[in-house]
Write a structure and sequence with these properties.
The complex is a heterodimer of chains A (325) and B (286). By secondary structure, chain A is an alpha/beta fold. Chain A is built from 10 helices and 13 strands. Chain A is globular and about 70 Å long. Chain B is mainly alpha-helical. Chain B is elongated, with a radius of gyration of 23 Å. The chains are: A alpha/beta (325), B mainly alpha (286).
Chain lengths: 325, 286
C-alpha cells in the first residue's frame, strides 16, 4: 500500500487554476521526484500534501491520504501532529527559512521540545547529536551560531535536521539545492540519500533539474502547466519518454557528449502557459512539434502506457523508440 | 592556514558588533546611564532632602553649598532636580514600556490573522491615533483630578496604538518570510509562531521607536506638571521645579534653566541611542 496518495488535486487562485487534476503516489521508503519548469505547479502540489498553501489559494482533491488517513478531513490539531511528526518539509531558500534572531541550536532544540516533548537538557544534547548527524562539523560550537554565521549548505543541513528531528516517515524537499552551488548540492543530495537509507523514509523531491532527479530518485512525475504529464521510473523516463514535453525537456539538457559537437541542444520553442491562459485540450499543444488538430480536444488524463508508466499524450509519437541511441 | 581561518571567522563578528555600537550610541548610553544612576541614587547623592529649606539663603546662585543654587523658598535646586528626575524616569519608563508589549502583540495578531481581527484592532488603533494625545490625557486628568494618576492612566491608554501600527506593518512583511512558513510546516501552533518567532523580530523596530516615545512622554509629563496638572507642589518633579522658577527667570535664572538642561540632556542621550540603533539597523540590512 502506498504511503501517500494524491488523486484529482486542484489548486486554484480564485478563478485561476494552478494545478489541474494532479495525482501522485509515494510508497514507503520511496524516493520520488517531481520535475517541471517554474510555474508548472510542482511546489503547490507538494505543499498541498501538508495543506500549506499560500494566501488566496484553495485546494480540492478526490483524495489526499497519508498512511490511509484523509489529510483533507484532518482537524487543526491532527494536521499539526502530521506536520510535526510524520511529514517533514524543507524549502528552497536556506537563507530565510531559519529565524534570524535565534541561535540555530535553539531552534532545533525547540523543535525537539515542542514536537517530541523533550526536556530542555535532553533536547539540547539531542540537537547537538542531530547537527553532527546531518554532517555539521563541530556541532557544540555550531549549536551557538546564528543563521547569518552559517553558509547556505550549513543552513540547509540545519533545516534538514529540524525536519528530521521527529524521524518522520516522509520528507518533502522543495528544491532543496536550487539556491546552493553545485558542490554543496552534491553533498546535500548525498545526505538525503543517506538519511532515507538510515531511517527508511520516503522522500518527495521537487526540482527543475533533471540531473538532480536522475541522481537520487526511483520514480519521477513530470509536471507542465499545472498537469502531471508523465510518470514513470527514472530509467523509463530517461530511456523511453512517451510525452513530447518530457522528451523535449531531456533533449534540452546539455551533456558531456554533446559538448564540442556542432549540433546545438534543442531548446523548447515558446513559453510555458500563463496562469490566466486557457488552453483547450493538451496544454503543451502550442509548443509541441507533434501537435495535430485532434490535440485540441484531448483530455489531459494520465493513461497507462506500460506497467508503472503513465502518460498524458494520446498521440504518443515515440511509441517504442528510445531517446538516446 | 590556521591563522587565516581564525581571522576569517573573527572579522564578521566585530563588524556585526560595530553595526549597533556606534559612537552616538555610546555617548547616548553614557549620558542616560549617568542620569539614571544619579536618579537611582538620589537619596545618597543629594546633599539635602527635596523639601529641606535653607532659610538664610533663598534664591542663592550656584555655589559649593548649593551646586544649582536655591529657589525662592530656599530649597536646594540640585537635590530637588535629582529627586524630580527619579520620579520622572520611573513614570516615563512605566508609561512607555507597559504599552509597548501590548501594542506589539496586538500588531502581530492583527498582521498575522488579517480579515476581521485586523480590521477591528486597526480601527481601534486608528481612533486612538487620530484623537489628540495631549487632549486625551488632559481629559482623563479632568476626570481623575490633577496628579500623576492621570498620566499613568492616559499615556498607556493611547500609547499602545502606535506600536500596534508599527508592528502590524512589519508583521505583514514578516508573515511572508519562509521561516514563518517553516514554523507551520514544523507543526507549531499559531500562538507559538506568533509569540516565539514573530514577536522577537518585531521587537527591534518597536524598541528603537520607544526611545523617541520615551522623550515625548518625558516632555509630556514635564509639560503637564508645568501646567499644574501633573505632580502637585511641593512635590519635586522637573516640570514643577521649572514652573516654580519661572517668575524669577530674569533675576534667578538657575532655578528654571538648570533643571531644564537636565531634561534636555536626557532627551539628547535617549535620542542618540535611538538614532544610532536605527542607523546600525539600516547598515546591517544593506
Amino acid at each position: 500500500m502506498s504511503l501517500l496518495r494524491i488523486d484529482g488535486l486542484h489548486v486554484e487562485f480564485g478563478p485561476l487554476v494552478a494545478v489541474h487534476d494532479a495525482g501522485l503516489e509515494v510508497g514507503p521508503g520511496e524516493f520520488v521526484g517531481l520535475i517541471g519548469e517554474s510555474g508548472s505547479g510542482k511546489t503547490l502540489t507538494c505543499r498541498s500534501i501538508l495543506r500549506l498553501l499560500p494566501r488566496g489559494a484553495s485546494m480540492s482533491a478526490r483524495e489526499i491520504s497519508f498512511d490511509g488517513r484523509d489529510v483533507q478531513a484532518m482537524s487543526g490539531a491532527e494536521l499539526r501532529a502530521l506536520r510535526a511528526r510524520e511529514i517533514g518539509m524543507i524549502f528552497q531558500d536556506p537563507f530565510s527559512t531559519l529565524n534570524p534572531v535565534f541561535r540555530v541550536g535553539e531552534q532545533l532544540a525547540e523543535t525537539l521540545r515542542v514536537n517530541l516533548g523533550m526536556k530542555k537538557a535532553a533536547a539540547r544534547a539531542e540537537a547537538i547529536e542531530l547537527l553532527g548527524h546531518v554532517g555539521i562539523p563541530d556541532p557544540p560550537r555550531r549549536f551557538l551560531s546564528y543563521p547569518h554565521e552559517l553558509s547556505g549548505g550549513m543552513r540547509q543541513r540545519v533545516m534538514i535536521a529540524m525536519a528530521m528531528a521527529a524521524k518522520p516517515r516522509m520528507l518533502i524537499a522543495d528544491e532543496p539545492t536550487t539556491a546552493l552551488d553545485v558542490t554543496t548540492q552534491e553533498q546535500i543530495l548525498e545526505l538525503l540519500l543517506r538519511l532515507r537509507r538510515e531511517h527508511d523514509m520516503a522522500v518527495v523531491l521537487v526540482s527543475h533539474d533533471f540531473g538532480v532527479i536522475a541522481q537520487v530518485c526511483d520514480r519521477v512525475a513530470v509536471m507542465y502547466g499545472g498537469f502531471v504529464v508523465e510518470s514513470a521510473t527514472v530509467e523509463t523516463i530517461y530511456q523511453r519518454p512517451e510525452h513530447p514535453y518530457t522528451r523535449a525537456l531531456l533533449e534540452s539538457v546539455p551533456s558531456l557528449e554533446s559538448a564540442g559537437r556542432r549540433a546545438r541542444r534543442q531548446a523548447i520553442e515558446g513559453q510555458p502557459p500563463e496562469l490566466s491562459e486557457q488552453v483547450a485540450g493538451c496544454v503543451f499543444r502550442p509548443r509541441c512539434r507533434f501537435a495535430r488538430d485532434s490535440c485540441g480536444e484531448v483530455s489531459m488524463a494520465l493513461e497507462e502506457v506500460a506497467p508503472a508508466h503513465a502518460c498524458a499524450c494520446p498521440v504518443r509519437p515515440f511509441a517504442r523508440t528510445a531517446v538516446r541511441t | 592556514m590556521s591563522v587565516a581561518t581564525v581571522e576569517l571567522k573573527a572579522a564578521p563578528r566585530t563588524r556585526a558588533r560595530r553595526d549597533w555600537l556606534s559612537t552616538p550610541v555610546l555617548i547616548g548610553a553614557v549620558i542616560v546611564a549617568l542620569l539614571a544612576l544619579a536618579a537611582l541614587l538620589a537619596p545618597l547623592i543629594a546633599p539635602y532632602k527635596p523639601n529641606d529649606v535653607d532659610f538664610l539663603n533663598p534664591v542663592a546662585p550656584p555655589s559649593w553649598a548649593h551646586p544649582m543654587g536655591t529657589d525662592d523658598a530656599g530649597r536646594d535646586v540640585f537635590s530637588r532636580s535629582l529627586y524630580g528626575l527619579r520620579l520622572d524616569l520611573a513614570i516615563v519608563l512605566l508609561v512607555t514600556y507597559v504599552p509597548l508589549p501590548i501594542g506589539v502583540l496586538l500588531g502581530a495578531i492583527s498582521g498575522s490573522f488579517g480579515g476581521k481581527t485586523d480590521a477591528m484592532i486597526s480601527r481601534v488603533a486608528d481612533v486612538m491615533l487620530a484623537f489628540p494625545f495631549f487632549v486625551l490625557v488632559i481629559a482623563i486628568i479632568a476626570i481623575v483630578g490633577p496628579g500623576l494618576k492621570g498620566v499613568l492612566i492616559g499615556v498607556p491608554l493611547a500609547g499602545w496604538a502606535l506600536y500596534t501600527r508599527l508592528s502590524r506593518s512589519e508583521m505583514l512583511v514578516l508573515r511572508e518570510q519562509p521561516f514563518m512558513l517553516a514554523t507551520t510546516a514544523l507543526g507549531y501552533t499559531r500562538a507559538r509562531s506568533i509569540l516565539r518567532h514573530a514577536v522577537p523580530n518585531l521587537m527591534r523596530t518597536a524598541l528603537i521607536y520607544s526611545t523617541l516615545d520615551m522623550v515625548v512622554n518625558l516632555l509630556l509629563l514635564a509639560s503637564l506638571s508645568y501646567l499644574g496638572l501633573g505632580k502637585q507642589p511641593p512635590g519635586a518633579e522637573l516640570g514643577t521645579i521649572i514652573a516654580g522658577g519661572q517668575p524669577y527667570l530674569l533675576s534667578a535664572w538657575w532655578i528654571s534653566t538648570l533643571p531644564g538642561l537636565i531634561l534636555v540632556l536626557f532627551g539628547v542621550g535617549v535620542g542618540l541611542i535611538g538614532d544610532g540603533l536605527s542607523d546600525g539597523r539600516l547598515r546591517g540590512r544593506s
